[in-house]
Specification:
heterodimer, A: 2 domains, B: Elongation Factor Tu (Ef-tu), domain 3, Rossmann fold, 2 domains, 15 strands, binds flavin-adenine dinucleotide, binds iron/sulfur cluster, binds FE2/S2 (inorganic) cluster
Chain lengths: 342, 273
């Protein structure tokens, strides 16, 4: 079990009543474009926030249906024309799992050999207000992979609301600038109080809850060998209900694959793609090392737990559980791992 | 965002000439509108405007700077349309990409090259490079196989190579006709005939996947060490930059970590052929 950071590592934070926060936030809508999670049916997802819906923002709930990557890698984007993105944008309410996923995305798209200029532009313009998860969902398992259910990396600020009181932590220069603008609107002062005890208690409780629910689940390193050692039959068996829809990859915060599509005028459109689709590895003449469905199915597991970890210094699965929730074939990777380690 | 910093934006190149190499293979001679240079074994992404893009390894000499020659086998949709291009057409080029042949490590050694089909395209560029460095090499042997005599490409190249000191070139066809006087059989049969000082030699294989596979096994059987066998891997590619994932071969992105690998590097990766 990993330990929670000591409270004294956390330096500056702000506290304010929720209505003051909401007022200040809407006053910044001219300066920033704001996206935040709003409840839709029985789930939550990011929406563009205006003064109309700002009171509908939900806080501290896991987890927006859309992974954070969609703000950086739209499903389809023309990557030859100049981008019209001007205004900085704030993404509020991102949980820890998606923030960790940025490590892998950055290593891909900002690799110094070839920087993706469109990803970089968005990344530079993005201000991330991460959120603590004050509860966890059935398939959340970030803690099994050594993560905590609260932002620890890549966020500019962290928000929590406890008993109508907003607690904001500042974690970066971008966060500082944002809070300065906010403070100008709302006469905000850094809190003199120590880091709120209640919040620490919640953090511990959510983590314990998740740990106990996923007790049997192998950790990341163990999963690597579980995947390596699983035989062909495992993949054949578990892929029986897979219809290769690619939802698991589309919804995954760390899946990076795409296809370039040509448009007249030597334009290109970068469209998100997935190794689960037939033909992903097809070469001329029809040869395809991934021709068999079970091989494509297993590739996602190998990619996440074997290939990416060998090559990148980042988790390729953050335990967000979205692929389990999204699967229409009811395939649950955690059940597979539990079974394989029985 | 400027053009030069956009990794996805091709630069333009004009089709100056089309050379018919065989019924299925043509060489396009391109004049790039931007300064362009590459190392042998590196590849480019060639765009047919609004239609599609495909990876090719230039078949010309990297020492020639004002032209890029690309030898293209008609294999499907994009390559089929590339075969129809009229002189003067404008194509898009991105690259060069990838890791080519580590020529310096061949110095002082014999180089045995096994090629098949359109695999001779990158090999021709390699041969031009090796000719430039021939003083530093012991010997260069080319064994090239094709289906029928009609499918043999770069016909003048063979007599040219055989006229160069330290170079020898052999050809085989799977199915011969009455005029064929050279080897008959799959490309690997030529390996039984050549004299190579294996401990002081490297081998290069480039061709269709089956040939790569059996060629590699044959070389291993002959005593080549896995680290001395250089393979040029063909995978599905989209970006060419190590981002899109299409060319994944285990932990490697063939476009960036390759396309040239030693067998040692890839032998434990899944689904390499
Ligand atoms: C590094 C490298 C160097 C190469 N060098 C050369 C060279 O010098 N000369 C040469 O002739 N060839 C070379 N090739 C091979 C060449 O790139 C292919 O022949 C070419 O991409 C075929 O394109 P095509 O559209 O004509 O073929 P197709 O068979 O029509 O299509 C091939 C591509 O389109 C995709 N595709 C087509 N239809 C579908 C579908 N229905 N569903 C999903 N995907 C589809 C395939 O996945 C594949 O990416 C090289 C390849 C690589 C990787
Ligand atoms: S593999 Fe599944 S659980 Fe892991 S990060 Fe992707 S969507 Fe989340
Ligand atoms: S190869 Fe598959 S699992 Fe890996 S990033 Fe691409 S789509 Fe996701
Ligand atoms: S071709 Fe895109 S990663 Fe290799």
């Amino acid at each position: 079990m990993n330990t929670l950071p000591e409270p004294d590592e956390i330096t500056k934070h702000y506290e304010m009543p929720r209505d003051a926060w909401e007022k200040a936030l809407t006053s910044l809508l001219g300066t920033y474009t704001l996206y935040a999670p709003v409840k839709r049916w029985d789930s939550i997802d990011y929406e563009l926030i205006s003064s109309e819906n700002s009171s509908k923002i939900v806080y501290n709930l896991p987890k927006p249906v859309s992974p954070l990557k969609l703000f950086l890698l739209p499903v389809k984007e023309n990557v030859v024309l100049d981008s019209d993105l001007q205004k900085p944008f704030v993404v509020l309410g991102t949980p820890a799992c998606d923030l960790w996923a940025l490590d892998l995305l950055d290593q891909f798209y900002l690799h110094s050999d070839y920087i993706d200029p469109y990803y970089k532009l968005r990344r530079d313009k993005m201000i991330l207000v991460g959120t603590d998860c004050h509860t966890s969902l059935a398939h959340c398992h970030c803690s099994s992979y050594g993560l905590n259910p609260f932002p620890e990396k890549n966020q500019d600020l962290v928000i929590s609301i406890i008993d109508g009181k907003v607690i904001l932590e500042i974690n970066s220069l971008k966060g500082e600038t944002f809070i300065e603008k906010l403070a100008a609107e709302s006469k905000l002062q850094p809190s003199e109080n120590g880091f709120p005890d209640d919040l620490l208690k919640i953090r511990q409780a959510v983590k314990s809850e998740m740990d106990s629910r996923n007790k049997r689940l192998p950790n990341y390193q163990e999963t690597t060998s579980v995947v390596k050692n699983a035989g062909e039959d495992t993949w054949k068996n578990h892929s029986k209900t897979c219809v290769a829809c690619g939802a698991c990859a589309t919804i995954c915060p760390t899946c990076t694959c795409f296809l370039l599509i040509d448009r007249p005028g030597f334009e290109k459109v970068r469209q998100m793609d997935a190794c689960q689709y037939p033909g992903f590895q097809r070469v001329a003449g029809g040869e395809d090392p991934h021709k068999q469905h079970f091989v494509r199915f297993s590739n996602r597991y190998f990619c996440k737990y074997v290939f990416r970890p060998e090559k990148f210094d980042a988790l390729a699965c953050t335990g967000c559980g979205r692929c389990i929730e999204a699967c229409i074939g009811k395939i649950n990777k955690n059940e597979i791992f539990n079974e394989l380690t029985k | 965002m400027t053009v030069s910093t956009n990794i996805y934006k091709p630069f333009r190149a004009r089709l100056e000439k089309v050379i018919e190499e065989s019924p299925l293979i043509k060489t396009l001679v391109l004049v790039p509108e931007t300064e362009f240079s590459f190392k042998t074994g590196e590849f480019i992404e060639l765009t047919l405007d609004g239609i599609g893009e495909a990876p090719f390894t230039p078949s010309s000499s990297p020492f020639v700077k004002d032209r890029i020659e690309v030898t293209i086998m008609k294999a499907g949709y994009v390559t089929g349309l590339m075969h129809e291009l009229p002189v003067g057409a404008v194509l898009g080029v991105r690259g060069p990409f990838g890791r080519g042949y580590p020529i310096e490590t061949f110095f002082g050694k014999e180089v045995l090259i096994l090629g098949g089909g359109c695999g001779l395209a990158p090999i021709r560029s390699l041969l031009y490079t090796l000719i430039e460095y021939k003083d530093k090499l012991k010997k260069v042997i080319l064994a090239y196989g094709s289906k029928t005599p009609r499918d043999c490409i770069y016909k003048p190249l063979f007599s040219y190579l055989n006229s160069i000191d330290k170079f020898e070139a052999h050809r085989s066809v799977d199915i011969a006709d009455e005029n064929w006087k050279e080897t008959v059989g799959v490309a690997t049969v030529m390996l039984d005939k050549v004299k190579v000082d294996i401990p002081n030699a490297v081998a290069v294989v480039c061709g269709p996947p089956v040939m790569m596979k059996f060629g590699t096994f044959k070389l291993l059987e002959m005593g080549f060490a896995p680290k001395d066998i250089f393979l040029s891997m063909e995978k599905n590619m989209s970006c060419g930059l190590g981002k899109c994932g299409h060319c994944m071969m285990g932990e490697y992105f063939v476009c960036k970590d390759g396309p040239v690998f030693t067998y040692e590097e890839v032998k434990n990766q899944p689904h390499i052929w």
